[in-house]
């Protein structure tokens, strides 16, 4: 059964818009559990622009659901993660100027640093996942690092989907080609799904568990749920966006209903 990790960073984004203590992301924990979510995902960014150290500590200490903590390979951040002891760490690339995590990890350039980080986290009983572009090469490179999980980046899939079905919402920064004919977009979408499927198959062959995420919403998620070896989806933006209108509990329940 497909699992749902709810990314609650954006609750802290809303709090930081006013720099006060409301809304508190910790209040999402019991509601996410009640709504049927399987995991909570948070990202402790180097610039602490949303989740801060105290949030991470309180969330990890109080959650009844497992916490998947996204982090970069920055030495200070990794030390913090080891102290916080989440059940899983998902290593993501991080650039200060980016609005969100724009692509997968460059495993080739950062191989040595990743190798020591993965060992260090695993030695501290933290499961490790790598957020990667959905390619066979990246899955093979992840295998060498002996990770437990890979999370396949679905951002490109989501952007093509948006261009095809709701041309107002695509992320202009991620896909440079504008005004692509419909037929071409359909081909691109099929190719991207096929790439994700092959990457998931390859990971499964190696005994690596497969998650996916980024840009998934109530429409585009359906196709991803049909990919056999994807066990878990991590979704934030679309759930929190819907929560503004329907409430968080209902927004998570709606997503759980679709992905199950
Ligand atoms: N998975 C990873 C590794 C991420 O970095 C993010 C964004 O923080 C997500 C999933 C969730 O993406 P979205 O907010 O677009 O649903």
The total of beta strands comes to 8
Shape, please?
globular
The end-to-end distance, rounded to whole angstroms, is 6 Å
CATH topology: TIM Barrel
Q: How large is the share of residues in beta strands? A: 15-25%
- Strands of the widest sheet, in order across it, are 1-2-3-4-5-6-7-8
CATH homologous superfamily grouping: Aldolase class I
Q: Mean pLDDT, nearest integer?
A: 94
Enumerate the spans where pLDDT stays under 50 for 5 or more consecutive residues.
none
> Which small compounds were modeled alongside the protein?
pyridoxine-5'-phosphate
The main β sheet shows up as: 8 strands, parallel, barrel
Overall radius of gyration = 18 Å
**Discrete helix count:** 11
Which architecture per CATH?
Alpha-Beta Barrel
Class derived from helix and strand content: alpha/beta
Number of discrete domains: 1
Element pattern in H and E? EHHEHEHEHEHEHHEHEHH
CATH class descriptor: Alpha Beta
Helical content, roughly? 40-55%
Protein traits:
globular, 8 strands, 47% helix, 11 helices, single chain, 8-stranded parallel β-barrel, TIM Barrel, binds pyridoxine-5'-phosphate, 260 residues, alpha/beta
């Amino acid at each position: 059964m497909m699992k749902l990790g709810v990314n609650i960073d954006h609750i802290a984004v809303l709090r930081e818009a006013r720099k006060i203590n409301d809304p508190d992301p910790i209040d999402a924990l019991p509601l996410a559990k009640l709504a049927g979510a399987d995991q909570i995902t948070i990202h402790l960014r180097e610039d602490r622009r949303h989740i801060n150290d105290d949030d991470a500590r309180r969330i990890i200490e109080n959650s009844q659901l497992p916490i998947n903590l996204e982090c970069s390979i920055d030495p200070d951040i990794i030390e913090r993660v080891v102290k916080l002891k989440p059940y899983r760490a998902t290593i993501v690339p991080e650039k200060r100027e980016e609005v969100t995590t724009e692509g997968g990890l460059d495993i080739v350039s950062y191989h040595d640093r990743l190798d020591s980080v993965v060992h260090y986290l695993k030695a501290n009983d933290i499961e490790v996942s790598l957020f990667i572009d959905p390619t066979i090469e990246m899955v093979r490179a992840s295998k060498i690092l002996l990770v437990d999980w890979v999370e396949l980046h679905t951002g490109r899939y989501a952007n093509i989907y948006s261009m095809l079905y709701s041309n107002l919402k695509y992320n202009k920064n991620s896909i440079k080609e504008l005004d692509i004919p419909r037929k071409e977009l359909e081909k691109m979408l099929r190719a991207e799904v096929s790439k994700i499927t092959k990457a998931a198959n390859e990971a499964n062959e190696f005994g690596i568990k497969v998650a996916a995420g980024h840009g998934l919403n109530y429409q585009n998620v359906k196709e991803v749920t049909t990919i056999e070896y994807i066990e878990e989806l991590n979704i934030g933006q679309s759930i929190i966006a819907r929560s503004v209108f329907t409430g968080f509990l209902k927004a998570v329940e709606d997503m759980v209903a679709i992905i199950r």
